[in-house]
């Protein structure tokens, strides 16, 4: 069951900009981290893991649940990132985001998410379908005090 804001119109959702420490330094100026993006075949788009909150669900708990469901990874939440607001299917949608460091896990493709990729911040910015999602990469880097 979807959760709505007090106006009973705004769809509430949550997600994370999931990152991990890179195994090697990248030659394109990006350092230290890789960002996980998910591919949704229904929309043929690339985005950060996110999803609608269940009724009564805590926002952060929902974000962590969505990361686990969509990527197969547990994660450790960090800094709060900007909330994104947009129209989805004619209804206002509000997605709260956190930075989250990836923990253990293994991705298994499903109907909702068929692929994930780990990319440098520069490559992630380029791969993301929506410009609003690109700003979250910059917010993550600011939160981690990294450049890239």
Walkthrough of the structure:
Helix content is 23%, strand content 41%. The N and C termini lie far apart (39 Å). It is globular. The chain has one domain (11-144): Nucleoside Triphosphate Pyrophosphohydrolase (Alpha-Beta Complex). The protein has 148 residues and is α+β, with helices and mostly antiparallel strands. The relative contact order is 0.26.
Keywords, please?
3 helices, globular, alpha+beta, 148 residues, Nucleoside Triphosphate Pyrophosphohydrolase
Short description:
It contains three helices and seven strands; from the N terminus they run E-E-E-E-H-E-E-E-H-H. With 148 residues, it is of the alpha+beta class.
List the helices and strands and how they pair.
Elements: E1 11-21, E2 33-40, E3 45-47, E4 50-52, H1 59-71, E5 73-88, E6 91-105, E7 115-119, H2 121-127, H3 131-144
Parallel strand pairs: 1-6
Antiparallel strand pairs: 1-2, 1-4, 2-3, 2-7, 5-6
Helix pairs in contact: 2-3
CATH 4th-level superfamily: Nucleoside Triphosphate Pyrophosphohydrolase
Q: What is the first-to-last residue Cα distance? A: 39 Å
- Structural class, by secondary structure, is alpha+beta
Any idea what the shape is? Answer: globular
Order of helices and strands: EEEEHEEEHH
| Oligomer kind | single chain
**Strand content bin:** 35-45%
**Radius of gyration over C-alpha positions, nearest whole angstrom:** 15 Å
Low-confidence stretches: none
